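Support request from a user on the community tier.

User writes: "When I paste my C-alpha cells into the form, the page sometimes reloads and wipes my input. The last time it worked, I copied everything first. Here is what I submitted, just in case something in the input itself triggers the reload:"
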C-alpha cells in the first residue's frame, strides 16, 4: 500500500496540470479537473488512514501473540479439563 498513494498523487497532479492546457480542457469537456480532484481526495484519505491501519495491525499482532502465550487456550484435551472440573456441565448416566 506504499505505492498506491504515490501513484494517485502523481496522477492527480498530472491530470490537473494537463487540464490547464488547451488540449486537456478539450478532453471530454474538461473532465480532467474533477477526475484529478477525486484522485487527490482518495490520496488524502489513504494518507489519513495509514496511521490508523498501522495502529490496528500492531494491536492485532500483539493480541495474537498474547493469545498464543495463554495457557488456557492451549489446553484442548477434554480429559484434562474434565478431571479438573468439579461440576461438569453435562453428565451421562
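"...and here is what came back when it finally went through:"
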Amino acid at each position: 500500500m506504499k505505492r498506491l498513494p504515490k501513484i494517485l498523487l502523481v496522477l492527480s497532479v498530472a491530470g490537473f496540470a494537463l487540464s490547464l492546457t488547451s488540449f486537456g480542457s478539450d478532453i471530454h469537456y474538461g473532465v480532467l479537473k474533477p477526475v484529478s480532484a477525486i484522485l487527490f481526495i482518495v490520496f488524502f484519505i489513504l494518507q489519513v488512514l495509514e496511521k490508523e491501519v498501522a495502529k490496528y495491525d500492531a494491536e492485532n499482532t500483539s493480541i495474537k501473540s498474547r493469545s498464543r502465550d495463554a495457557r488456557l487456550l492451549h489446553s484442548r484435551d477434554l480429559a484434562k479439563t474434565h478431571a479438573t472440573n468439579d461440576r461438569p456441565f453435562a453428565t451421562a448416566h
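Agent notes: The reload is a front-end session timeout and is unrelated to the input. Helices lie at 3-19, 22-26, 32-69, 71-74, 78-84. The longest helix spans residues 32-69. Escalated to web team.
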